[in-house]
Design a protein that fits this description.
The protein has helices at residues 3-6, 121-178, 185-193, 207-212, and strands at residues 14-17, 23-27, 33-38, 44-49, 54-59, 65-70, 75-80, 86-91, 96-101, 107-112, 117-119. The chain has 213 residues and is of the alpha+beta class. Strands 1-2-3-4-5-6-7-8-9-10-11 form an eleven-stranded antiparallel β-sheet.
C-alpha cells in the first residue's frame, strides 16, 4: 500500500515538501511514487522510487558532488581543486580521467585511462611566464633586503669615521689654543702628533693631557 492509499488521498499528484520547499515525496494516481532526501545545504543525497531503483550522492564542503552510487551497481567519484574545477573522475568499470588548470582556471592538460593525453601549450606557456615573474619578484625582494642591510652598515661606518675625524680636529684645535700656536693646520697637526700615538683616543702623556683632565 502506498502512502497516498494509506492516507486515502484522492487528488493527484500527491506531493509532500520539507520546510525548505523541496519535494520529498510524490505519488501519481497510478500508484507510482518517488522519494527524495536532502542535506542541510539543499543537495539531493538520496532518491528512490516504487520500481526499487535508488540513487545516493555525497558532496564536499563546497557542495560539489564527489560520489554517486545506484541500485544497479554503478558508482563514480569526482575530485575538485580549491577553485571548484573538476580535476578527476573515475567510475566502476575502471574508466578515469584527470585534468590540470592554471592559476586563471584555464585547462592546460587532459589525460584518461584510454591513453588519450592532450596538453594546452598556450596555457602552459602562460603559467611558466607567471612562475618566472613570481621568481623574479622574490629575487628582487631579496636584493632589496640585502641592499638595505648593506646601506645601514655603510651609514653606520661613515658616521663613526666622521665622529673620529671631528674628534681629531677638536684635539688639534685645542692643542693650538692652549699652546698659542698661530700656524697652519698642517703645522699644528704635526706639532700635535709629536709624542702621540696617532690615535684620537689615547696620548703618550703630553703636557696638555696631564694638565687639562
Amino acid at each position: 500500500m502506498t502512502l497516498a492509499q494509506r492516507n486515502r488521498i484522492t487528488e493527484f499528484p500527491y506531493i509532500i515538501k520539507d520546510k525548505n520547499g523541496n519535494i520529498i515525496y510524490r505519488e501519481n494516481s497510478n500508484g507510482f511514487w518517488s522519494e527524495r532526501k536532502y542535506d542541510s545545504n539543499g543537495n539531493k543525497i538520496y532518491f528512490e522510487n516504487s520500481t526499487g531503483y535508488w540513487c545516493k550522492r555525497e558532496y564536499d564542503s563546497n557542495n560539489n558532488e564527489i560520489y554517486t552510487e545506484t541500485s544497479e551497481g554503478f558508482w563514480c567519484k569526482r575530485e575538485f581543486d580549491s577553485n571548484g574545477n573538476q580535476i578527476y573522475y573515475e567510475q566502476c568499470d575502471g574508466f578515469w580521467w584527470k585534468k590540470e588548470f592554471d592559476l586563471n582556471n584555464r585547462e592546460i592538460s587532459f589525460q584518461n585511462s584510454d591513453g588519450n593525453c592532450v596538453s594546452t601549450q598556450k596555457g602552459k606557456i602562460i603559467q611558466e611566464k607567471k612562475n618566472m615573474i613570481i621568481n623574479l619578484t622574490r629575487v628582487l625582494l631579496l636584493l632589496v633586503l640585502v641592499f638595505g642591510v648593506f646601506y645601514s652598515c655603510y651609514n653606520r661606518e661613515t658616521k663613526q669615521k666622521k665622529e673620529i675625524e671631528e674628534y681629531h680636529q677638536f684635539r688639534i684645535e685645542e692643542f693650538k689654543k692652549y699652546h698659542n700656536y698661530d700656524t697652519s693646520y698642517e703645522a699644528a697637526e704635526k706639532a700635535y702628533y709629536i709624542g702621540h700615538d696617532n690615535t684620537p683616543n689615547s696620548c703618550n702623556g703630553s703636557y696638555y693631557d696631564n694638565n687639562t683632565n
